[in-house]
Amino acid sequence: MDCDTAKALDRWVEKGAKPTVGRLGGGLGQINVIAGYSCRTRNNQAGAKISEHGKGRAIDISGITLANGKTISVLDGWKKRSDRKLLERLHKTACGPFGTVLGPKSDRYHKDHFHFDTARHRGGAYCK
């Protein structure tokens, strides 16, 4: 992971994730990362452009684990009303520190995780 992405992740954890989780389950215990640097194309599709993962500028998060050990996954939590609200807030708070924020509503490739990257777009952050 490059320095800008590491700094964006730290900003999101400190100013987005921790305040969003608050005291729920004793607070945020762990961010569950399923992908970081990976030299591959976007969505692993042949002929596609190099993914931001291949440039060290992206991270994929499958969920969080609370201090009490409860895990809230994007895949399962998105279907539960109580967990979905928390996950939607976590997703929203990443928009700003990161230039691209994708989740279950974006496409079939992101149904089980959040994709955060530091790519910049002309119109500002792209969050879906």
From TrEMBL:
Domain of life: Bacteria
InterPro entries named among the record's database cross-references: Extensin-like_C, Zn_M74/Hedgehog-like
Residue ranges occupied by any Extensin-like C-terminal domain in the UniProt entry: 1-128
Protein name: Extensin-like C-terminal domain-containing protein
Organism: Actibacterium pelagium
